[in-house]
Specification:
Blueprint: E1 2-6, H1 15-28, E2 33-37, H2 43-47, H3 59-65, E3 74-75, E4 81-84, H4 93-96, H5 106-112, E5 120-124, H6 131-139, E6 142-148, H7 157-170, E7 176-183, H8 190-202, H9 216-220, H10 228-231, H11 236-254
Parallel strand pairs: 1-5, 1-6, 2-4, 2-5, 6-7
Antiparallel strand pairs: 3-4
């Protein structure tokens, strides 16, 4: 089982889009996939057609009330794709857990009690480096970093790398960056290629060959509560995430 935190504290990097659509294509390839929404904004939950105010059990109850993850499982349109949703109450979790011993490993310990086995767990992290992200990093074994191909793309990444290194040194020695994904890529724009070159230089050997092209359909899909697999399976965005899923599946055969 691969447990992957998808993280970038910079908003608009394509984090949620990647979690949802990559998960959908891996599920379509027969992999059992669990998506965990750790963002109080609940974008992964909304992207899959759910309304956070109507959510009962969620990541909030797992962190605060010691709820078993299986009690929060929700099915999706894809038979192999399961969601643990989020809701706005999760925003108060950091304050509520301030005096809790071991508050940074609650998610990790909860997933140990999860009896249902998955091939992949993707954790959609909030755009910050607080307690919720820390829980994701202690629960995961791998980190994927989506980076938008724009001028300010690398801004703030130093702090993110420092946080990952601290978690590795102090709490989770297995944690490592295994994938960096270029998103919102447009071959016609020089800045996109320049950013892609800098990212490859900075994360040598860890950048996916697949780039996610700028695509209107990818941006529209969440408002319909659908993955790109259902919404526009023949668009460039669908093609790119399908290629990314195959690239990730090839990693399995290389291990």
């Amino acid at each position: 089982m691969r447990k992957i935190a998808v993280i970038n504290q910079k908003g608009g990097s394509g984090k949620t889009t990647t979690v949802v659509n990559l998960g959908a294509y891996l599920a379509q390839n027969g992999k059992r996939v669990l998506l965990i929404d750790m963002d109080p904004q609940a974008h992964t939950t909304i992207h899959l057609g759910l309304e956070p105010p109507q959510i009962g059990k969620s990541t909030y109850e797992i962190l605060i009330n010691n709820l078993s993850p299986e009690e929060a499982f929700l099915p999706t349109f894809h038979s192999n794709l399961t969601l643990i949703p989020s809701k706005i109450e999760l925003a108060s979790a950091e304050i509520e857990l301030v005096n809790t011993v071991g508050r940074e490993v609650i998610l990790r310990d909860a997933l140990k009690r999860c009896r249902k086995q998955f091939d992949y767990i993707f954790i959609d992290c909030p755009p910050s480096l607080g307690l919720l992200t820390l829980n994701a990093l202690t629960a995961a074994k791998e980190v994927f970093i989506p980076i938008q191909a724009e001028f300010f793309a690398l801004e703030g990444l130093t702090k993110l790398i420092q946080t990952i290194n601290i978690v590795r040194q102090r709490i989770n020695s297995d944690l490592k960056i295994t994938g960096v994904l270029i998103t919102m890529f447009d071959l016609r724009k020089n800045i996109c290629q320049e950013v892609a070159d800098k990212v490859k230089e900075h994360f040598h050997g860890k950048v996916f060959r697949t780039k996610i092209r700028e695509n209107v359909r990818l941006a529209e899909a969440p408002s319909f509560g659908k993955t790109i697999v259902e919404f526009a399976p023949s668009c460039h965005g669908a093609e790119d995430y399908q290629k990314l899923a195959k690239e990730i599946l090839r990693q399995e055969s290389q291990k």
